[in-house]
Design brief:
Layout lengths: L2 H19 L3 E10 L2 E9 L6 H18 L6 E6 L10 H7 L3 E10 L2 E11 L3 E5 L5 E5 L3 E6 L4
Amino acid sequence: MGKKETYESRVEAFLLPLLEENKFELVDVEYVKEAGTWYLRAYIDKEGGIAVDDCELISRRLGDWLDEKDFIDESYILEVSSPGLGRPLKKEKDFARSIGKDVDVRLYRQRDGQKEFTGRLSSYDGDTVTLQMEDGSQMTFERSGIALIRLSFDF
């Protein structure tokens, strides 16, 4: 396990009981470098949606714990937020919760001349994702070929 994965798993292990205590759900933890700056992000959710006060509560507790443990070598920015409207589907529970909802799929390589598809998530397993398309047809995608899958939203 690399440094990135180690950091993410340690933070996740700390957050899970804290979030359960507050009836929140951990959507994801990521440690990423963007434009030369490291970010440690925790995405949380709850029934009815996350408020700024919820993020502040978790951010303070997580920040205090990170300061005490001091296991991350680089300087970084800590962010705790809602996963937002276009949340990516990453974990089993994300897929299960999204059955019957519209999702956007972006592929690594073109299929039928395009890389992006939108349809209703009808099924999934460890290897594939199947969408019901607007015309009633079904399309199945190999999960290994999917760059991003997230909930679709229209404005």
